[in-house]
Amino acid sequence: MMPMVYTVYGFAIFFIVAWVCLWLIHIMSLSYSKWKLHRTVDRSPPEQPYPGVSILKPLTGVDPNLFSNLETFFTLDYPNYEVLFCVENEHDPAVMLVNSLLHKYPHIEAQLFVGGMCVGVNPKINNMQPAYLAAKHPLILISDAGIRMRDDTLLDMVQHLRDDVAIVHQMPFTCDAEGFAGVYEKVYFGTAQARMYLGADFLGINCHVGMSSLIRRCALEETGGLAAFGEYLAEDYFMAKAVVSRGWRMRVASLPALQNSGTRSVGALQARLTRWARLRIAMVPTTVLLEPLSECLPLGAGAAWAAGQLFGAEPLPFFLVHVLVWFLSDWLMLRSVQNGSPPFTKVQFLLGWVWSECCAPLVLAVALLNPEISWRTRCYRLDWGGRAHELKPKLKF
Prior knowledge:
It is a multi-pass membrane protein. The protein is built from 14 helices and 13 strands.
């Protein structure tokens, strides 16, 4: 009987420790966001000229916001940069949009690269490789198609560079959008994602998401260049891991990355989060055990049971207070990341928050039960450690 009692108390202590640690991360991330994000960008002339930047823009297909998103890269307040657009196929409709922008802004140095170069299974790396080889500047900005830039974003990122800093990346966030999908997206990226991203950066843990990432070309070449990461789907994580292992540091920029997809939907975001979860499980298998403890509802349930076992607390009131304080903490985090009030009511935030929190454990469960990854028109299988293998399409009879 005694071993059973010790086991119960051991689990209870584990949940309480995890609960305390997560609340410390809440406090740390919220405080860090107030200090880190949305600083005023210094537009005064520098003592030394800013280094040139080659912007790589991999494109596949179009959406209603693509033209306006791409146009923001032609109006950046930065003295020396080039924009290198990459498409896999000359018949891609994005080609027409790019050509119209090249015609509209002839004074901006920009090129279109068509066809890609096969260096691995990652289609994004393959698409960017010719442009990367042709890039002429010492800094490389890899920017996804759906990113919208403020005119001072690139200046902010470059100003975060130091002699020992090789990567400056933006924390993922979203532009304002109408509809429940827009609320869900902003709530997720402004609360759960922001909390773990800022907490990891503060603690020096690799949290690099490559949707908008500035990297020194010399540091990337030390690791074998862009092509060295063609065997991974999560090339951003392994790129940062390889660069940091050589003594370089990373920093998060003060302006978040503004995702501005023109085709938002709840299903599309959940499919994306499931794909990311599958990648994390393959890269860091302990994700399966630790990630549920970072979510409000599973952690709250475990901590409520543990408080009852250890301190005689009533589990239900404990759980309800936990959820309420977590909700209020996330509201403050979203306001900090948004740099003001979000573009929806508190009731809409409540609905989006409850949906996001309830879906989070289900997303992880789906990723665990079905590890096959679908990305655009391709399917992949991941080995432990993150290497990817493309699966041949199944024949239909």
